[in-house]
Amino acid sequence: MNEVETDFGEPIPGTVLPTDQWAKTAIKRLPPTGPLNFADVFGRVAPVVVELGCGNGRYTLHSALARPDHDHFASDILPVVIRYATRRANQRGLHNVRFAVRDAQTIAREYLPAASVAEVHIYHPQPFRDPRQAHRRLITPRFLAHVHRALRPGGMVVVQTDHADYWAYFTRVFPVFFEFQEAPGPWPDAPEGRSRREILARSRGLTIYRGWGLRRDGLAEREALVLAEALPSPVFRSEGPWAELDAREASHR
After folding, report:
1. Environment class of 216 (CB within 10 Å of its CB; exposed 0-12, middle 13-18, buried 19+)
2. DSSP structure class, residue 232
3. Smallest Cα–Cα separation from 166: which of 145, 137, 190, 146?
4. N-to-C CA span, the chain
5. Which residue, among 59, 79, 73, has the nearest Cα to 25 in the 3D structure?
6. Nearest to 158 by CA among 209, 116, 213
């Protein structure tokens, strides 16, 4: 078919293949308890890339196409965006992708086995500007401790936001668990944006903050949890130029 899709004027990675080449990428029902066995999930042993809060799957599609020797597991709490992501991955024949509907906190805490994941990617986690919703912010010290546990030695975490105050918080807590550094500009593999939100935010003239870090391998799981308890929660002022964009993305990621 060679059909090309676009999102805010930017092509969705890959093209739609003939139906006899489609894949099945949805995990329709996660087991009631974890952890997952990724060798069973994918039918092979390969490095695993995880995207939490994947939205419509732009980054996972791009990475899976570029790295067929890696397996990709992505989740989002919104069924509607997982339906988009699954359809696109299926149509592109991506047998190295699985999508699931589940919140990122639960995935990190319960479903990712210890030392099992090569990379964890988190693009534009919802900042929840309403102070009454602050408890729903994803990036907390305990969440990062769970990500640290899931990463294998030398594993990498990648994070991105267009919210300046959320980013300021990231720069305080990520270095506790990871050798963290700010990325100097757009990711070379996707200069127009790794996520739908990034493309939209850039079109609105918002600054994008990007960073990545390698797992601190000398930090034991229990020690990481103790450190997490001593670190501050993500509390920051709610003002900023993000209100309209946040509201839109909350239901259309």
Report:
1. middle
2. P
3. 137
4. 26
5. 73
6. 213
